[in-house]
Amino acid sequence: MHREADELDLPQRVGRVETNRRVPAKSMVRFHEPLKVGDLELVGFFDDIVDVNAKTSLLSWGFLVRSSVRDAATKLRPYVWDSDRLRLDGSVYVRSEVWSEQHPELDWQKVATEAGEPKPGTIERVFLIEPSGDVPGLVRLGCSL
Fold first, then answer.
1. Residue 9, pLDDT score
2. Within its chain, how far is the Cα of 61 from the centroid?
3. FRET partner for 14 with CA separation of 20 to 30 A, picked from 35, 79, 83, 110?
4. Are 117 and 106 in contact (CB under 8 A)?
C-alpha cells in the first residue's frame, strides 16, 4: 500500500507516544509541526531495530524528510560532515566507516562499505539518505550501526 507523505499515518509527538523499535509502523513518530532545516521539512523521526540474523541486528535512527532522495542529498550536502564521501549506492546515499575487533587501535576507518551484512568482527557505522519504504515523497535521513 502506497501513501503520500501528507497522509502519513503516524502518531504525533504530543505528550507520551507508545513506540516499538522492532515494529516498523510503530518505530516512527510524526512531529506536531514540521521542522525546517535549510530548504527541507523534517516531519518526524524514526528509531528502529532490524534483526539481520540470529547474531546481527541493525540499529537505525534519524529523521523523516518530505523530499526525494536526490533532492535531500543535494540540499543536505553542505551540512554533512565529510560530504565528499557521501556516495550514491543504488537508490541510497551513504557515507560509511568500519571498526574492526582485530584492529581497535585503528579506530573508525573511512571505507566504502557494501550493502548487506557486516563482515564478522566488524561494526559498520553508516550515514544514510534513503527512501522511506511505502511512503512516496518521504525520505529517511539518519544513521545505522
1. 55
2. 6
3. 79
4. no
Within 13 Å of residue 108, how many CA atoms lie on the same side as its CB? Answer: 11
Alpha helices (H) in 41-137, listed in sequence order: 69-76
Retrieve residue 132's grid coordinates.
522511506
Would you say the pTM of this structure is higher than 0.90?
Answer: no
Q: What is the mean pLDDT of each run of 10 residues along the chain (145 residues)?
A: 48 55 74 90 90 82 95 93 92 92 88 77 91 85 93
**55-60 contacts at long range (C-beta below 8 A, 24 or more positions apart):** 56/117, 56/118, 58/144, 58/145, 59/144, 59/145, 60/128, 60/140, 60/142, 60/143, 60/144, 60/145
| Distance, CA of 16 to CA of 114 (rounded, Å) | 38
